[in-house]
User: Fold this.
Amino acid sequence: MAAVLPLADLKQQVRPASWMNSIIKGDCVAALEALPDKSVDAIFADPPYNLQLGGALHRPDQSLVDAVDNDWDQFASFDVYDAFTRAWLLACRRVLKPQGTIWVIGSYHNIFRVGAIMQDLNFWLLNDIVWRKTNPMPNFKGRRFQNAHETMIWASRDAKAKSYTFNYEALKASNDDVQMRSDWLFPICSGGERLKGADGKKVHPTQKPEALLARVIMASTKPGDVILDPFFGSGTTGAVAKRLGRNSSASSASRIISMRHPPASKQSSRSARPNSRF
Ligand SMILES: C[S@@+](CC[C@H](N)C(=O)[O-])C[C@H]1O[C@@H](n2cnc3c(N)ncnc32)[C@H](O)[C@@H]1O
Assistant:
Protein backbone atom coordinates (compact mmCIF):
# COMPACT_ATOMS: atom_id res chain seq x y z
CA MET A 1 0.00 0.00 0.00
CA ALA A 2 1.32 3.45 -0.93
CA ALA A 3 2.34 5.95 1.71
CA VAL A 4 0.04 8.96 2.04
CA LEU A 5 2.00 12.12 2.73
CA PRO A 6 0.52 15.33 4.10
CA LEU A 7 1.81 18.22 2.01
CA ALA A 8 3.17 20.08 5.05
CA ASP A 9 5.39 17.09 5.95
CA LEU A 10 6.57 16.71 2.40
CA LYS A 11 7.84 20.27 2.22
CA GLN A 12 10.15 19.50 5.15
CA GLN A 13 11.70 16.60 3.23
CA VAL A 14 13.60 17.01 0.00
CA ARG A 15 14.80 13.45 -0.48
CA PRO A 16 13.18 11.83 -3.54
CA ALA A 17 12.41 8.79 -1.41
CA SER A 18 9.87 10.92 0.40
CA TRP A 19 7.69 11.42 -2.68
CA MET A 20 8.36 8.30 -4.75
CA ASN A 21 5.59 5.69 -4.64
CA SER A 22 3.39 7.89 -2.55
CA ILE A 23 0.17 9.85 -2.58
CA ILE A 24 0.62 13.47 -1.64
CA LYS A 25 -2.48 14.78 0.05
CA GLY A 26 -3.47 18.24 -1.07
CA ASP A 27 -4.10 20.56 -3.97
CA CYS A 28 -1.95 19.39 -6.87
CA VAL A 29 -0.65 22.86 -7.76
CA ALA A 30 0.72 23.30 -4.23
CA ALA A 31 1.90 19.70 -4.04
CA LEU A 32 3.80 20.00 -7.31
CA GLU A 33 5.86 22.82 -5.81
CA ALA A 34 7.47 20.27 -3.52
CA LEU A 35 8.84 18.26 -6.46
CA PRO A 36 12.18 19.00 -8.12
CA ASP A 37 12.48 20.38 -11.66
CA LYS A 38 12.66 17.79 -14.47
CA SER A 39 12.11 14.79 -12.21
CA VAL A 40 9.17 13.03 -13.91
CA ASP A 41 9.12 10.89 -17.07
CA ALA A 42 5.39 10.75 -17.75
CA ILE A 43 2.21 12.41 -16.49
CA PHE A 44 -1.37 11.18 -16.72
CA ALA A 45 -3.86 13.92 -15.81
CA ASP A 46 -7.63 13.50 -15.53
CA PRO A 47 -8.61 17.00 -14.39
CA PRO A 48 -12.06 18.32 -13.44
CA TYR A 49 -14.35 18.48 -16.48
CA ASN A 50 -16.13 21.72 -15.51
CA LEU A 51 -19.41 20.14 -16.60
CA GLN A 52 -21.52 23.19 -15.69
CA LEU A 53 -24.61 21.06 -15.07
CA GLY A 54 -27.74 23.14 -15.01
CA GLY A 55 -29.67 21.03 -12.49
CA ALA A 56 -30.62 17.42 -11.84
CA LEU A 57 -30.87 15.05 -14.81
CA HIS A 58 -33.58 12.36 -14.87
CA ARG A 59 -34.11 9.25 -16.97
CA PRO A 60 -37.44 8.78 -18.81
CA ASP A 61 -38.65 6.71 -15.80
CA GLN A 62 -37.89 9.78 -13.62
CA SER A 63 -35.01 8.07 -11.77
CA LEU A 64 -32.12 10.42 -11.00
CA VAL A 65 -28.92 10.17 -13.08
CA ASP A 66 -25.83 9.97 -10.87
CA ALA A 67 -24.08 12.93 -12.53
CA VAL A 68 -20.69 14.50 -11.75
CA ASP A 69 -21.93 17.33 -9.54
CA ASN A 70 -19.08 17.19 -7.02
CA ASP A 71 -17.62 20.30 -5.43
CA TRP A 72 -14.31 19.66 -7.16
CA ASP A 73 -15.96 20.10 -10.57
CA GLN A 74 -17.45 23.54 -9.81
CA PHE A 75 -15.79 26.63 -11.30
CA ALA A 76 -17.31 30.11 -11.25
CA SER A 77 -16.51 30.85 -14.91
CA PHE A 78 -14.43 29.74 -17.88
CA ASP A 79 -11.81 32.29 -16.81
CA VAL A 80 -11.49 30.64 -13.40
CA TYR A 81 -11.26 27.20 -15.00
CA ASP A 82 -8.63 28.43 -17.47
CA ALA A 83 -6.52 29.98 -14.69
CA PHE A 84 -6.65 26.71 -12.74
CA THR A 85 -5.75 24.74 -15.90
CA ARG A 86 -2.82 27.04 -16.67
CA ALA A 87 -1.54 26.73 -13.09
CA TRP A 88 -1.49 22.93 -12.93
CA LEU A 89 -0.17 22.53 -16.49
CA LEU A 90 2.67 24.98 -15.79
CA ALA A 91 3.51 23.12 -12.59
CA CYS A 92 3.48 19.82 -14.50
CA ARG A 93 5.72 21.22 -17.23
CA ARG A 94 8.32 22.30 -14.67
CA VAL A 95 8.61 18.82 -13.15
CA LEU A 96 8.52 16.97 -16.49
CA LYS A 97 11.86 15.85 -17.91
CA PRO A 98 12.77 17.42 -21.31
CA GLN A 99 12.03 14.09 -23.05
CA GLY A 100 8.92 13.44 -20.94
CA THR A 101 5.33 13.28 -22.18
CA ILE A 102 1.97 14.19 -20.71
CA TRP A 103 -1.50 12.74 -21.25
CA VAL A 104 -4.60 14.79 -20.45
CA ILE A 105 -8.07 13.27 -20.72
CA GLY A 106 -11.27 15.25 -21.00
CA SER A 107 -14.64 15.63 -22.66
CA TYR A 108 -16.05 18.28 -25.03
CA HIS A 109 -16.71 20.41 -21.93
CA ASN A 110 -13.04 21.05 -21.22
CA ILE A 111 -10.64 19.39 -23.65
CA PHE A 112 -10.58 22.22 -26.22
CA ARG A 113 -9.72 24.79 -23.55
CA VAL A 114 -7.08 22.45 -22.11
CA GLY A 115 -5.58 21.79 -25.55
CA ALA A 116 -5.30 25.50 -26.40
CA ILE A 117 -3.62 26.23 -23.05
CA MET A 118 -1.20 23.34 -23.60
CA GLN A 119 -0.14 24.85 -26.91
CA ASP A 120 0.15 28.31 -25.33
CA LEU A 121 2.51 26.79 -22.73
CA ASN A 122 4.68 25.24 -25.47
CA PHE A 123 3.71 21.62 -25.02
CA TRP A 124 3.96 19.87 -28.40
CA LEU A 125 0.85 17.88 -29.29
CA LEU A 126 1.75 14.38 -30.53
CA ASN A 127 -1.71 12.85 -30.87
CA ASP A 128 -5.26 13.15 -29.73
CA ILE A 129 -6.64 9.74 -28.85
CA VAL A 130 -10.37 9.16 -29.01
CA TRP A 131 -11.51 6.76 -26.30
CA ARG A 132 -14.70 5.36 -27.83
CA LYS A 133 -16.95 3.89 -25.15
CA THR A 134 -18.61 0.58 -25.96
CA ASN A 135 -21.26 1.19 -23.29
CA PRO A 136 -21.87 4.96 -23.06
CA MET A 137 -24.72 6.54 -21.14
CA PRO A 138 -27.72 7.33 -23.40
CA ASN A 139 -28.73 10.90 -24.17
CA PHE A 140 -31.91 10.79 -22.09
CA LYS A 141 -33.58 13.86 -23.56
CA GLY A 142 -32.93 12.92 -27.17
CA ARG A 143 -31.85 16.49 -27.91
CA ARG A 144 -28.24 15.75 -28.86
CA PHE A 145 -26.06 12.91 -30.14
CA GLN A 146 -25.19 10.27 -27.55
CA ASN A 147 -21.92 11.40 -26.00
CA ALA A 148 -19.92 8.23 -26.61
CA HIS A 149 -16.26 9.23 -26.33
CA GLU A 150 -13.62 11.16 -24.42
CA THR A 151 -10.45 12.66 -25.85
CA MET A 152 -6.91 12.22 -24.59
CA ILE A 153 -4.23 14.68 -25.66
CA TRP A 154 -0.73 13.21 -25.70
CA ALA A 155 2.03 15.81 -25.82
CA SER A 156 5.75 16.15 -25.34
CA ARG A 157 7.22 18.81 -23.10
CA ASP A 158 8.99 20.54 -25.98
CA ALA A 159 8.66 20.68 -29.74
CA LYS A 160 12.31 19.69 -30.05
CA ALA A 161 11.97 16.54 -27.94
CA LYS A 162 12.68 13.68 -30.33
CA SER A 163 13.55 10.79 -28.03
CA TYR A 164 10.42 10.60 -25.92
CA THR A 165 9.28 7.06 -25.10
CA PHE A 166 6.86 5.47 -27.55
CA ASN A 167 6.79 1.68 -27.47
CA TYR A 168 5.65 1.39 -31.07
CA GLU A 169 6.61 -2.25 -31.61
CA ALA A 170 5.02 -3.46 -28.35
CA LEU A 171 1.76 -1.72 -29.22
CA LYS A 172 1.80 -3.18 -32.73
CA ALA A 173 2.49 -6.66 -31.37
CA SER A 174 -0.48 -6.31 -29.00
CA ASN A 175 -2.68 -5.28 -31.96
CA ASP A 176 -2.40 -8.35 -34.25
CA ASP A 177 0.78 -6.89 -35.73
CA VAL A 178 -1.08 -3.85 -37.06
CA GLN A 179 -0.02 -0.28 -36.25
CA MET A 180 -1.98 1.02 -33.24
CA ARG A 181 -4.57 3.61 -34.24
CA SER A 182 -5.60 6.75 -32.42
CA ASP A 183 -9.17 5.56 -31.75
CA TRP A 184 -9.39 3.13 -28.86
CA LEU A 185 -12.43 1.03 -28.01
CA PHE A 186 -12.94 0.26 -24.32
CA PRO A 187 -15.99 -0.04 -22.06
CA ILE A 188 -16.50 2.45 -19.24
CA CYS A 189 -15.57 1.13 -15.84
CA SER A 190 -18.25 -1.27 -14.57
CA GLY A 191 -18.76 -4.69 -12.99
CA GLY A 192 -16.17 -5.99 -10.57
CA GLU A 193 -13.67 -3.26 -11.51
CA ARG A 194 -15.99 -0.47 -10.35
CA LEU A 195 -15.24 0.44 -6.74
CA LYS A 196 -18.39 0.43 -4.65
CA GLY A 197 -19.12 1.27 -1.05
CA ALA A 198 -21.03 -0.81 1.49
CA ASP A 199 -24.21 0.86 0.20
CA GLY A 200 -23.57 -0.58 -3.29
CA LYS A 201 -23.07 2.89 -4.77
CA LYS A 202 -19.99 3.76 -6.81
CA VAL A 203 -17.36 5.49 -4.71
CA HIS A 204 -15.99 7.76 -7.42
CA PRO A 205 -18.06 9.27 -10.23
CA THR A 206 -15.35 9.23 -12.91
CA GLN A 207 -13.28 6.10 -12.22
CA LYS A 208 -11.42 5.35 -15.45
CA PRO A 209 -11.12 1.80 -16.84
CA GLU A 210 -7.87 0.02 -16.06
CA ALA A 211 -7.54 -1.12 -19.70
CA LEU A 212 -7.29 2.52 -20.81
CA LEU A 213 -4.54 3.28 -18.31
CA ALA A 214 -2.76 0.06 -19.18
CA ARG A 215 -2.45 1.11 -22.82
CA VAL A 216 -1.33 4.62 -21.85
CA ILE A 217 1.38 3.30 -19.52
CA MET A 218 2.48 0.55 -21.91
CA ALA A 219 2.70 3.04 -24.79
CA SER A 220 4.68 5.81 -23.17
CA THR A 221 6.73 4.54 -20.21
CA LYS A 222 9.44 2.02 -19.53
CA PRO A 223 10.46 0.19 -16.36
CA GLY A 224 12.17 2.56 -13.97
CA ASP A 225 10.22 5.61 -15.14
CA VAL A 226 8.65 8.08 -12.74
CA ILE A 227 4.93 8.56 -13.42
CA LEU A 228 2.92 11.44 -11.97
CA ASP A 229 -0.86 11.64 -11.61
CA PRO A 230 -1.95 15.07 -10.32
CA PHE A 231 -5.66 14.07 -10.11
CA PHE A 232 -5.48 10.60 -8.61
CA GLY A 233 -9.19 10.18 -7.78
CA SER A 234 -9.89 6.52 -7.06
CA GLY A 235 -6.29 5.63 -7.89
CA THR A 236 -6.59 3.93 -11.29
CA THR A 237 -3.15 5.05 -12.46
CA GLY A 238 -1.46 3.61 -9.38
CA ALA A 239 -3.47 0.37 -9.49
CA VAL A 240 -2.56 -0.26 -13.13
CA ALA A 241 1.13 0.54 -12.68
CA LYS A 242 1.20 -1.93 -9.81
CA ARG A 243 -0.66 -4.59 -11.83
CA LEU A 244 1.83 -4.15 -14.67
CA GLY A 245 4.54 -5.06 -12.19
CA ARG A 246 6.26 -1.71 -12.37
CA ASN A 247 6.57 -1.47 -8.64
CA SER A 248 7.88 -4.96 -8.22
CA SER A 249 11.53 -4.24 -7.68
CA ALA A 250 13.20 -1.31 -6.01
CA SER A 251 15.91 -1.00 -8.61
CA SER A 252 13.70 -1.06 -11.70
CA ALA A 253 10.47 0.17 -10.24
CA SER A 254 8.24 2.65 -11.96
CA ARG A 255 7.29 5.23 -9.41
CA ILE A 256 3.92 6.81 -9.06
CA ILE A 257 3.56 10.25 -7.59
CA SER A 258 -0.05 11.14 -7.13
CA MET A 259 -1.97 14.05 -5.79
CA ARG A 260 -5.31 13.94 -4.13
CA HIS A 261 -7.44 16.84 -3.11
CA PRO A 262 -8.71 16.87 0.50
CA PRO A 263 -11.99 14.95 0.51
CA ALA A 264 -14.83 17.19 -0.62
CA SER A 265 -18.32 16.91 0.77
CA LYS A 266 -19.56 14.74 -2.08
CA GLN A 267 -16.50 12.50 -2.20
CA SER A 268 -17.07 9.27 -0.30
CA SER A 269 -14.74 7.87 2.33
CA ARG A 270 -13.67 5.03 0.02
CA SER A 271 -12.58 7.36 -2.76
CA ALA A 272 -10.68 9.28 -0.14
CA ARG A 273 -8.51 6.15 0.33
CA PRO A 274 -7.12 5.47 -3.17
CA ASN A 275 -3.93 4.15 -1.59
CA SER A 276 -5.80 0.91 -0.86
CA ARG A 277 -5.64 0.17 -4.62
CA PHE A 278 -2.00 1.07 -5.04
C1 LIG B 1 -11.82 13.28 -13.06
S1 LIG B 1 -11.38 12.77 -11.47
C2 LIG B 1 -10.02 11.66 -11.69
C3 LIG B 1 -10.46 10.20 -11.68
C4 LIG B 1 -9.31 9.21 -11.74
N1 LIG B 1 -8.60 9.28 -13.00
C5 LIG B 1 -9.82 7.80 -11.51
O1 LIG B 1 -9.67 6.93 -12.39
O2 LIG B 1 -10.40 7.57 -10.45
C6 LIG B 1 -10.59 14.19 -10.83
C7 LIG B 1 -10.11 14.01 -9.40
O3 LIG B 1 -9.26 15.11 -9.10
C8 LIG B 1 -9.50 15.56 -7.78
N2 LIG B 1 -9.13 16.99 -7.76
C9 LIG B 1 -9.87 18.04 -8.14
N3 LIG B 1 -9.18 19.19 -8.00
C10 LIG B 1 -7.95 18.83 -7.50
C11 LIG B 1 -6.79 19.54 -7.15
N4 LIG B 1 -6.75 20.90 -7.25
N5 LIG B 1 -5.71 18.86 -6.70
C12 LIG B 1 -5.74 17.51 -6.60
N6 LIG B 1 -6.83 16.77 -6.93
C13 LIG B 1 -7.93 17.42 -7.37
C14 LIG B 1 -10.97 15.29 -7.53
O4 LIG B 1 -11.21 15.14 -6.15
C15 LIG B 1 -11.21 14.01 -8.33
O5 LIG B 1 -11.05 12.88 -7.51
Notes: The radius of gyration is 18 Å.
